[in-house]
Design goal:
This protein is an alpha+beta fold and 206 residues long. It is built from 8 helices and 10 strands. The protein has 2 domains: 137 residues, Enolase-like, domain 1, CATH 3.30.390; 56 residues, no CATH class. Helix 6 packs parallel to helix 8. The longest helix has 20 residues.
Length: 206
């Protein structure tokens, strides 16, 4: 029997198989494999894809950043390969502590493992539909509230300030904006505020 269709798997009621984590329903990776097999899959597994440089399951950026306390950290991610019958997928996800990124001083093997397990269940949801509504619920739960005022186009005064600071420090503001898929005219108040904050943190300009 072939694996059930995306539409069929999305309708599977998996709530009775879920546990609570951070206030949301969570599907265990082993249960996820079992459910796929129950619905027609002959082969289901996942495995880490090691970093080609370090050979570790944990991947990190070369760029360091500092938090407000001066602690230096990096962005950490894991990459896994998922095989479902004749299909192979790859999923790369950040190593998180709830909704917060894991920092150097709190990195553990358990958190690396959790990141990969989470990536597997999410990959299955995306490509097969099984458990997809759990992630839909989580994404809606985590969607930040953005006031309407921040969604409006940035004021000419704010854009002028950003351009002046960029010029005074030799920053290519045009390239910065374009690199985010925007033009100066398309910047929102929220995006302009983020740019000003980044400039302030780096150069101390008000």
């Amino acid at each position: 029997m072939p694996l059930a269709s995306y539409e069929e798997l999305r309708k599977v009621d998996i709530k009775k198989y879920c546990k609570k984590r951070d206030g949301l329903d969570y599907l265990n990776w082993a249960t996820c494999i079992n459910l796929l097999r129950m619905h027609g899959a002959d082969k289901v597994y996942w495995e880490p894809v090691p970093d080609p440089v370090t050979g570790s399951s944990l991947r990190k950026t070369d760029v360091e950043f500092s938090d407000k306390n001066g602690n230096k950290n990096r962005c950490y991610e894991t990459l896994i390969k998922v095989v479902i019958d004749e299909n192979t997928y790859f999923m790369q996800t950040p190593v998180m502590n709830g909704s917060n990124p894991v920092k150097d001083n709190s990195m553990t093997q358990q958190r690396v493992w959790n990141s990969m397990c989470r990536a597997f269940v999410k990959c299955v949801a995306i490509h097969t539909g099984l458990g997809f509504d759990l992630w839909l619920k989580e994404e809606n739960h985590n969607e930040p509230f953005i006031p309407e005022t921040l969604k409006k186009r940035a004021s000419a005064a704010k854009i002028k300030t950003i351009k002046q600071i960029c010029t005074s420090h030799g920053v290519d503001g045009d390239a910065w904006v374009a690199g985010n898929g925007k033009t100066w005219e398309e910047l929102t108040e929220e995006e302009a505020a983020m740019m000003l904050n980044a400039l302030k943190q780096k150069y101390g300009d008000e």
